[in-house]
């Protein structure tokens, strides 16, 4: 009897400590297997990006979303590609910072453009995710961007168009196309939407000429139009978009861009009566043939989240009305809380277009120090572009990575997916870098980039001004 009791107690103890061990382990570290997470997107010509699927589920319209790297043809030199991507990412960040500075000081956008270095030969590689919509009856594959508002496509007759796989949209063949005139509210709202005033001419009625500049030398210019747009099988009539007659920048496989920012002309503002001002996405990693989804509308049944959704409020700043900004209140590495004076101040901008998250210098330093303390024993590797915490992991089949978490106001937590911690510079894993970088100045705004948003359902509720986060393994079907 005595012995039995001791045995039972012993058994309970063993079970308890085992459970504890697993819990503690699962929480603080994530196993990264090099074989399972094949490092580079394969593209043997089987996947095509000319058409992304869509479906409807209850009140939600679901568009398949892919990473451009999965369909931009064979990449010969990944090193070069990665370097260019990070240069482009840095240019995007500098442009966002300059834009914010000007928005706050009330200066016109044009001044900021002069200060932004134009990097020639850099592809528009930061805006990575694409969906397909139908505009005026034609399939159009467009880049998804939460950091800008105007949706546009390349348009005939075109003064300057980059190469695109799909035929260029031609309004003269569309019976549902209409011009937007210069005296319309849409034209007047261009200043707040794009930073550039709509331009009128002496023609009567005058078309409304727009310009959007993305700060890396890429831009689109043209005139506003209205057209019938079909998202999945949801019909949006009189959708205001940019007919781009002069477009520069290699927007890759895309015919244009979908603006999902927070202000007037953005797609989500124009469809509030249909989708209730709610959209969400799940950004898939580039590895393998994964696909994600862009869901328009707030029907919960369309999500495949594996943790409950929790919401944090979007900070409102009248000057930065385009952007989605969160209150970052904390962070932890492998369960160890990070201390930083930057928490709770200024906010962090969540962006689908930026690749690598940028943290205030003091916070980045604290994160890096703690990460290096826990991820020990691995041979270091040289820095790569903006990434300065690199390792040579070519001798390993798998590694345990300290879990990175970020906290936001209202007790919301983002656990960075295991595929969003390291940036693989070299395919043999001889140069693998922590996918986080430092801002230049303490007072610049932090950015939550798309690498750290992978395999997460991110819900933007523009009406209730809140953002939801939950874990999800991205998959269109
Ligand atoms: C392309 O590669 C994938 C994964 O390796 C494989 O499943 C598929 O059959 C290949 N397709 C062709 C056309 O070779
Ligand atoms: C759009 O693409 C789909 C799938 O490839 C195709 O079935 C459909 O006919 C296309 N629509 C038009 C108008 O080209
Ligand atoms: C729209 O405006 C353009 C530019 O002025 C003009 O060439 C075109 O004919 C107009 N289209 C319609 C449908 O009014
Ligand atoms: C979309 O709506 C417009 C205007 O209501 C209508 O003319 C058109 O036939 C509709 N298209 C589809 C595909 O439902
Ligand atoms: C962020 O949240 C913290 C904690 O709730 C609060 O004290 C702080 O004022 C908030 N910051 C902003 C900019 O709203
Ligand atoms: C990386 O580590 C492997 C095995 O430890 C070694 O053979 C290789 O030379 C290292 N590569 C570089 C670029 O340092």
Automatic annotation (TrEMBL):
Any one GO MF annotation of this record: aspartic-type endopeptidase activity
Record's signal peptide: 1-21
Occurrences of domain Peptidase A1 (ranges): 129-470
Annotated InterPro entries: Aspartic_peptidase_A1, Aspartic_peptidase_AS, CND41-like, PEPTIDASE_A1, Peptidase_aspartic_dom_sf, TAXi_C, TAXi_N
A matching Pfam family: TAXi_N
Keyword Protease belongs to the record: yes
Example GO biological process: proteolysis
Keywords: Hydrolase, Protease, Signal
Active site: 145, 351
The family this protein is said to belong to: Belongs to the peptidase A1 family.
Name of this protein: Protease
Species whose genome carries this gene: Lithospermum erythrorhizon
């Amino acid at each position: 009897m005595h012995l039995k009791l001791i045995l039972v107690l012993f058994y309970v103890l063993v079970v308890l400590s085992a459970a504890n061990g697993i819990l503690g382990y699962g929480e603080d570290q994530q196993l990264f297997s090099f074989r399972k997470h094949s490092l580079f997107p394969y593209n043997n010509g089987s996947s095509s990006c000319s058409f992304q699927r869509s479906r409807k589920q209850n009140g939600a319209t679901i568009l398949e979303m892919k990473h451009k790297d999965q369909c931009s043809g064979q990449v010969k030199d990944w090193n070069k590609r990665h370097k260019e991507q990070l240069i482009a990412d840095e240019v995007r960040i500098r442009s966002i910072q300059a834009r914010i500075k000007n928005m706050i000081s009330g200066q016109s956008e044009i001044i900021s453009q002069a200060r932004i270095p134009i990097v020639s030969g850099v592809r528009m590689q930061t805006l990575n995710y694409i969906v397909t919509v139908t505009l005026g009856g034609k399939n159009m594959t467009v880049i998804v961007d939460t950091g800008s508002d105007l949706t546009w496509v390349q348009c005939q007759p075109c003064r300057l168009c980059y190469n695109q796989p799909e035929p260029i949209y031609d309004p003269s063949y569309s019976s549902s196309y209409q011009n937007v005139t210069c005296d319309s509210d849409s034209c007047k709202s261009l200043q707040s939407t794009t930073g550039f005033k709509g331009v009128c001419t002496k023609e009567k009625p005058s078309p409304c000429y727009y310009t959007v500049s993305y700060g890396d030398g890429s831009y689109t210019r043209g005139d506003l139009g209205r057209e019938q747009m079909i998202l999945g099988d949801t019909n949006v009539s009189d959708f205001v978009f940019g007919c781009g007659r002069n477009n520069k920048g290699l927007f890759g496989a895309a015919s244009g861009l979908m603006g999902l920012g927070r202000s007037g002309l953005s797609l989500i503002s124009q469809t509030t009566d249909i989708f209730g001002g709610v959209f969400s996405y799940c950004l898939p990693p580039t590895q393998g043939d994964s696909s994600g989804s862009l869901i328009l509308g707030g029907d919960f049944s369309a999500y495949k989240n594996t943790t409950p959704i929790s919401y944090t409020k979007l900070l409102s700043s009248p000057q930065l009305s385009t952007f989605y900004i969160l209150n970052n209140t904390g962070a932890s590495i492998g369960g160890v809380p990070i201390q930083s004076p930057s928490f709770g101040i200024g906010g962090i901008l969540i962006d689908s277009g930026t690749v690598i998250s940028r943290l205030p210098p003091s916070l980045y330093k604290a994160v890096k120090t703690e990460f290096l303390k826990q991820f020990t024993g691995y041979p270091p590797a040289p820095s790569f572009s903006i990434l300065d915490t690199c390792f040579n992991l070519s001798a390993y089949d798998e590694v345990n990575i300290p879990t990175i978490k970020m906290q936001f106001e209202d007790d919301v937590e983002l656990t960075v997916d295991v595929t969003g911690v390291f940036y693989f510079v070299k395919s043999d894993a001889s140069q693998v870098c922590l996918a986080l970088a430092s801002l230049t100045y303490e007072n610049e705004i932090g950015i939550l980039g798309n690498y750290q948003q992978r395999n997460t359902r991110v819900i933007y509720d523009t009406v209730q001004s809140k953002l939801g986060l939950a874990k999800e393994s991205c998959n269109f079907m």
